Amino acid sequence: MSTMKAVRFHCYGDSGVLVHEEAERPVPGPGQVLVRVAATSFNPVDATIRAGRLTEVFPVELPHVPGLDVAGTVAAFGPGVEGPRVGEAVVAFLPLDADGAAAEYALAPAASLAAAPRTLDLADAAALPAVGLTAWQALFEHAGLRAGQSVLVNGAGGAVGGYAVQLAAAAGARVTATAGARSADRVRGYGAERVAGYLDHTAPLADAVGGPFDAVLNLVATTPEESAALTGLVADGGIAVSATGPLPEDPARGVRAAALFTRSDAATGPRSVWCGAGAGGAHRAGGRGPVTGGGSSAEGDAEGRAAAPDAAPGRRTRRRARVPPPPPFGAPSVLTVRSCVRSPVGARPCARCRSQGWSGGGRRPRR
């Protein structure tokens, strides 16, 4: 039996349930591809799964490996798989009810794989799948956004919002965005024509952001009153798309509403999700650089640490947990994680490290 290093949880809970341990290396079955992981990244849904709040909808088998985003290279593939070659660099958003990519190897449905963008370091590309698919599906599948139309991205300072601004601008849409003061310049650089601060729902929203808009993309938790106000910014016949819960429709004006839940179908999405929109590629304002996932990287953080996750969604930038390849010559391989060096791999960390939120033991075995 081949083994690998992995971050797993054996019971539901906060980041303290994550342990760094030996696990059996998965073997690809029909329609599956084995990916040698270069990196994974944390999304709020990872914490939701780990906390056990999705068990009725997406039950997982314990122990479970988190990490829905993956970037890596094809190591092997199962029967019936055509297309990917061993060694090819790929990215994917993995199914919510299967083991993830916080490990040295991960299984991915062949249909979920897409070629990794060549404009990014492969490890950085792990920050793209979930945010890229979320932004694309919201704007172009649900909202049907076209060149020349107007869109409001409410909550553009986060990873999905930043990606949505770039994709919408690259598609020729007129973009208005809301973001905090620290994010405003960055969001403007992504291509937003107008950037407003956090919306004050005690005042008319149109005074702050203008409008009406052909589409409104909401990425912020809202009260029923705030949701209704956002729908009020949609032009007659337009659509309101929300990732945080449905916004109300307005049948009298022909305003539709859609609740967004991201599908893991990277391979069926347009290439522009990963490499830019349109033949020329999606660029930041002035054509300087490719579409990016936003947020900050956290090389060296454990998934559970980068996922410290007990923070409220929308107030954390995305961070990635890097998983390096095994060292040569049969040396003991370990994930690059923040873990307790006083405890063996797989054991709970000491009290001092637990107080800092670190993951399970990470003491290397002696040679």
Provide keyphrases for this structure.
367 residues, alpha/beta, Quinone Oxidoreductase, Chain A, domain 1, Rossmann fold, 2 domains, six-stranded antiparallel beta sheet, 25% strand, disordered C terminus
Could you describe the 3D structure shown?
Helix 2 packs across helix 3 (159-170). By secondary structure, the protein is an alpha/beta fold. It is elongated and about 65 Å long. The protein has helices spanning 44-50, 129-142, 159-170, 184-189, 205-209, 224-231, 272-275, 303-306, 351-355, and strands at 3-9, 18-24, 32-41, 69-77, 89-93, 105-109, 114-115, 150-154, 174-178, 194-196, 213-218, 234-242, 256-259, 320-322, 339-344, 359-363. Strands 3, 4, 5, 6, 7 and 14 form a six-stranded antiparallel β-sheet that branches. The chain has a six-stranded parallel β-sheet with strand order 10-9-8-11-12-13. The chain folds into two domains: 3-128 and 295-363, Alpha-Beta Complex (Quinone Oxidoreductase, Chain A, domain 1); 130-287, NAD(P)-binding Rossmann-like Domain (Rossmann fold, 3-Layer(aba) Sandwich), CATH 3.40.50.720. The longest helix is centred in the middle third of the chain and has 14 residues, at 129-142. Residues 280-367 are annotated as: Disordered.
| Distance separating the two termini | 21 Å
CATH class of the largest domain: Alpha Beta
Q: Which sheet architecture does the biggest sheet show? A: 6 strands, antiparallel
CATH superfamily assignment of the largest domain? Answer: Medium-chain alcohol dehydrogenases, catalytic domain
Mean pLDDT: 78
Radius of gyration: 21 Å
Shape call: elongated
Query: Can you count the beta strands?
Result: 16
The secondary-structure class comes to alpha/beta
CATH topology of the largest domain: Quinone Oxidoreductase, Chain A, domain 1
Domain count, please report it. Answer: 2
Protein name: NADPH:quinone reductase-like Zn-dependent oxidoreductase
InterPro entries: ADH-like_N, Chloroplast_QOR, ER, GroES-like_sf, NAD(P)-bd_dom_sf
Organism: Streptomonospora nanhaiensis
GO molecular function, one term: oxidoreductase activity
